[in-house]
Amino acid sequence: MSNFDQLIANTIRPDVRALSSYHVADNVGFIRLDQMENPYELSGLLRDELAHRLANAMLNRYPVPSPNELRAKVCAKLGIPAGYDVMLGNGSDELISIVITAVTKPGQRTVVMAPVPSFVMYQRSAQYAGADFVGVPLKEDFSLDRDAMLKAIEEHKPAVVFLAYPNNPTGNLFDKADVNAVIEALGDTGLCVVDEAYEPFAQTSYMGRLPRYPNLIVMRTLSKLGLAGIRLGYMSAAPQLLAEFDKVRPPYNVNILTQTAAAFALDHLEELNAQARAINAERPKLAAALAELPGATVFPAAGNFILFRVPDAERATAKLLANRILAKNLSKMHPLLTNCIRVTVSTPEENAAFLSALQAPDQS
Ligand SMILES: *Cc1c(COP(=O)(O)O)cnc(C)c1O
């Protein structure tokens, strides 16, 4: 086969050909403050115990298709309301895709809606599934534009609306009254996914409102809590809804190593929660130091990251890169984010390195 151009043009969808792959910066040897990872590792004792458990995992067998024990543990440890179950995913990314796949009707216009700027996978997954994505701009202060959302819901009749709470990349929590208005406007015509990837830091949740709102789905992940490497997301919703999503879920979507490591981590949740508290304690210090930078604006942050604006984000990230520090320049993502940088809150040492790189006078 020599003419791949022809082969690809004949087989691969035009919209897929036009895409670029999800880009992650080459990060070996860098201080990584661009992906909201937890900088802390498990303590030595826990690692040894985990190694033992993983060594006993039955790698020769297919994993349990829907691990009852792990689900029960998630429900018990992570505040799932009585009478509600969870569905597990290979990261919450997979759950986003499962929800969208379940609502997208072949040959009919299906709309997936989210405020913008927000988490990019909502739009990406919608496109892969063949749904139309409608993005509703946030206000200048990154609050939800309630009137615009309600108008867009009326006009486009979305099958599902995604609200990241707190929002990524802006970092803020939307006003509860605005979120409630969106869920209520959708009523029995649309689902609302409240994506709580940063709940361990925000310490506020819609989980308790599941009984009140039949169309509500609450989604979370262990990634930002310190287990990004194992890929485990979970979502809860009314059992009737979960039963439908379960039909779309690939049968062995959570592998045995992930199941084992997740069960272990939940048995030692206190260690992860303590790490989250340490990160939360650093957040206001980092925010205050950033606010001291000449011309900087720091936005309210409820997750393990801070969004801030500087006079020249290109220059600031270049200075960071020269010190082998990664943070995300979001200028190109959305006009509201011009000259905005998103930085993960990390250890006191890494935060200090980040600040001193930014504070250093410009070369030239
Ligand atoms: C990081 C993030 C996710 C992805 O979580 P995974 O479980 O690692 O796939 C989902 N939603 C939001 C808003 C995020 O920021």
UniProtKB/TrEMBL annotation:
Which pathway does the protein contribute to? Amino-acid biosynthesis; L-histidine biosynthesis; L-histidine from 5-phospho-alpha-D-ribose 1-diphosphate: step 7/9
Q: Matching Pfam families, A to Z? A: Aminotran_1_2
Q: Name one GO molecular function term.
A: pyridoxal phosphate binding
The UniProt record lists the keyword Membrane: no
Cofactor names from the entry are:
pyridoxal 5'-phosphate
Q: Which residues carry this modification: N6-(pyridoxal phosphate)lysine?
A: 224
Q: Cross-referenced InterPro entries, in alphabetical order?
A: Aminotransferase_I/II_large, HisP_aminotrans, PyrdxlP-dep_Trfase, PyrdxlP-dep_Trfase_major, PyrdxlP-dep_Trfase_small
What sections of the sequence does the record tag as coiled-coil?
A: 262-289
What EC number(s) would the UniProt record show?
A: 2.6.1.9
Q: Which residues form the Aminotransferase class I/classII large domain?
A: 45-358
Keyword list (alphabetical) reads: Amino-acid biosynthesis, Aminotransferase, Coiled coil, Histidine biosynthesis, Pyridoxal phosphate, Transferase
Q: Per the UniProt entry, what are the Gene Ontology biological process annotations, in alphabetical order?
A: L-histidine biosynthetic process
Broadest EC class?
A: transferase
Q: What is this protein called?
A: Histidinol-phosphate aminotransferase
